[in-house]
Amino acid sequence: MTDDHKDRILADCLEAYHRQRARGEVPDMEALQAELPEDLHEDFLELVAAETAIDEALEPAGDAALPLAWGKYTILREIARGAAGVVYEALHRELGRKVALKVLRTGLDTDDVTRERFRREAQALAQIHHDHIVEIYEFGEFDDRPFYAMSLVEGPTLSDLVKRDERPEPREVCEGLAGVANALHALHEAGMVHRDVKPSNIMIDMNTGRYMLADFGLARTAMSATVTRTGDALGTPLYMSPEQMLGNRDAIEARTDVYGLGATLYQMLTGKPPFKTDNLHALMRMVLSQRPEPARTLNPDLPAGCSSIAMKCLEKEARDRYASAADMENDLRAFAEGKRVSGKPLTPWQRSVRQVVKHPVLAVAATLLVAFAVWFAAKPPAPGRLSVTTTQTADIRVGGAGAWLQAPMRNQEVEPGRKHLVTVKPKSDAYLERTFEVQIDSGSTLEKEIWLQPRDPNNVAAYGSLQADTGVDAVEDLSGMPGVHRGFGDEAPIVELWFPRGKVRMEDLGRWEAHISLDFPEDGGEIRFSAGEEQLGTMDFPEPETQLTAGDMSDEIRGKLQVGMIVTWQFHDKRGKAVGRPATFEITDVDLRERFEGIEAKFEGWTEEGRSIFGATLRAELMINHGLYGPAFLALRPFVKKESATQRMILLQKKALESLFSDRKERRELKDRWQLWIEVDEAYRAYTKEEWTSYLEKLGTR
Amino acid sequence: MDLGQTQTLILRALDGTEKDKSTLLEYLRPRLVLWAAGRLSPALRSKLEPDDVAQEALIAIHRGIGGFQGRDDRQFLAWVFKIAENRIRDLADHHGAQKRQPVIPPQDFSQTSPSTAAARREEVDRVARALPGLPDDYRQVLSLRRFEEREVREIAEIMDRSENAVRILYCRALKALRKAMDDGAEDGGPVPQKP
Fold it and tell me: A153-346 maps to which CATH number?
């Protein structure tokens, strides 16, 4: 191809880029690139980089000021600013009426769907008249931006009260929120879900004393919309339900709002949101898998009733919360009137059962996160010696690694209230050994959430290599295996098979591990390996409590392995009956560790926070690209829906990073890093898509 | 550019307070700096700084904004760059006559604005430094398309080329700009280093 011809093609593509921008869209880089021959991809990115540099240069130095007028409204002041919209106090010039004017922000990720949703929800809301819902007067568009005008509620938001430390008495809060619950119920009956119930969206009308529900239709389900919410102190989705965290739109329903209202109640009772951390991924992990401190633990003065209402709302599984906002209202009213509250959160025993059973929350909780082995040895201080060896999945995050440990106990060891000393020995040197005292509370399970300390909290490179060294998360597998954990607490033996899933290099076979526990016949069995029709060989599995890793694979089997081969392994008992589900891994020649290390090197000189968020998402992206971790893909699916995964990740990262920095200069530097990221991504793109797709097909995953 | 935003800013500045006017002017400033960086001929470049041209132009725009008749953002930008063009001519004459005299100091409107004319931002700097080294037609096409926000059709007329030729030229100009920016960064200039 001549240079002339190349330039012509690039110019056409650039025109398409400009047309998309002119329409106010985020240019779909992947689609645009797809139109180009491969050798021009890099050239095109260069062009876009130049465009971006000009865009940034053209930004005015000061923050853009308030618009003065909006159609027939005069803007008086800004009340609030969220990811999707800005609310102004405004004056209707002809009617002389003050209103709250909500304007949809048009920016990077505004698309027609968002506009349409904004419009539809405003219209639907206009049909609802409720004492606790802000009334909508008008919907319209001005300057190509949709807006709606609603009654101006004068008074503080609940979030203002928390900030000023002026939280009302529990009874008063419950009475006020009962009205909001009633409003939510009306909304649900009308087929809508608020999706963003939180203290800053509930106002107390100074004139009537009513708690008013506000901010409709701006909440979106995708994480991206919420992480950037500049109005939030942390810019994090503190009040988001697990199903929203997962971006599972289908799962969002009335009980999602019950969660939000419960989180609000929790904060009004304790002064704190249910979970709090400044690390988005840590927060995600907490919301998905960790139980909030009971409200009464934080504030012992609280009456039990209101604390249980909040805790019931905060259950991870929607079915464990109040069935409807109306049910919640009943309890809130009952409490306010000094009557008995009916709703109770799950008991610890119910909870432990739930945790073990296949659970999308648990499965995905371990996603951005990594599974790794923890040796677990319990020593009772009393005579006799208890030694339990098990492996558990654990998640790792910057600043620490957490493990939710469950050790099945033998009958004679089970004694509620008995204390055990447990030493957790992390498999990787990157983490410190720790000893905890735990006790058996109920059932026959020793359980505790344990946090590991990294040896060097600043060593992100160690973090990366830990990842490369450790196993592939097998939570997904466990879930599908019949009888997993069924023998919990009795004599059923535990078997650990440590084999890879996903992709693994032949030389890394011994390093990659998957942890599978399953019911095991007393007389042992074998693992059979095959590739398609070809039988590769077997490995003996002599007895319960055996540990086998892929490193133990015989030379005979190894000799047959080839790059590109999909290896299936399946456990069979002595009678030849298959136990559990087969799993597969693919032999690859892609050295992931090298890549991780290469990328880690690029993080030199970054701030700790920047590294943690950026690093984590980058890794997640790599996982997608390499099809390495099935669960990671599931967790990230919400981002993949409309835009390409890459684009979404970039956006997410950029916003997450920006939310960490208030200073313009720092933000600017981040932008440069963002560009760097694209370069990194580009270097990997060549492998990604087909590989991932075929991997999924092979796994039979969607 | 978000033309909608410009429109709002213009409308407000026309009827509004000094603060509204200065908001609009600050909005125009980086655009004028870049435009001047691309516009100054090598002879003038030794005498004039793009920032000074922008500042001069902004003062003139501030003074003349009451007289602007149009309402459309494109008309407004055309008007702005006409003023800027005039300022360059005046300044060039001024310098021709008086050799290297300091340019007129900034005047009062900037006092109403917290941002300072002197602190040229890094983003602007990156591009402004790269522009003068580009061939004339590259600078022209970048200027017309991105700073003056003209349609390809208009640019084709001004430059007396086909629309296709303009698009390709623009594409090459961008590529050259990007390269010049990278080279500038490697020279250890004031451009922020990538991590």
Answer: 1.10.510.10
* A511-521: average pLDDT: 47
Looking at residue A518, its pLDDT comes to 47
Structure confidence by residue, pLDDT tens digits, A617-668 = 444 444 433 333 222 222 222 223 333 444 444 454 444 444 433 445 544 5
Query: Per DSSP, what are the bridge partners of residue A407?
Result: A446
- Which residues of A lie inside 8 Å of B (Cβ-Cβ)? 7-8, 10-12, 14-15, 43, 46-47, 49-51, 53-54, 56-62, 64-65, 67-69, 106, 143-145, 602-606, 668-669, 672-673, 675-676
DSSP strand pairing (A69-70 vs A534-541): unpaired
Highest mean pLDDT among A364-368, A566-570, A644-648, B68-72: A566-570
Q: Is A477 a catalytic residue?
A: no
Q: Decide if A205 contacts A152 (C-beta within 8 A).
A: no
Superfamily of domain A71-152: Phosphorylase Kinase; domain 1 (3.30.200.20)
Same domain for B153 and B100: no
* Facing A58 at nearest CB: one of B1, B7, B16: B1
Domain locations along chain A: 3-58, 71-152, 153-346, 602-699
Report helix, strand and coil shares of chain A as percent, to nearest 5.
40, 20, 40
A256-289 tens-digit pLDDT? 899 999 999 999 999 889 988 766 666 777 787 7
Contacts A14 to B, Cβ<8 Å: 167, 170-171, 174
Residue B139 has which token pair?
């600078």
Q: Which residues does A264 contact at the CB level (< 8 Å), separation at least 6?
A: A158, A177, A197, A198, A199, A202, A239
B35: domain range? 1-119
Does the ipTM exceed 0.90? no
The CATH number of residue B143's host domain is 1.10.10.10
Average pLDDT of the residues of chain A: 62
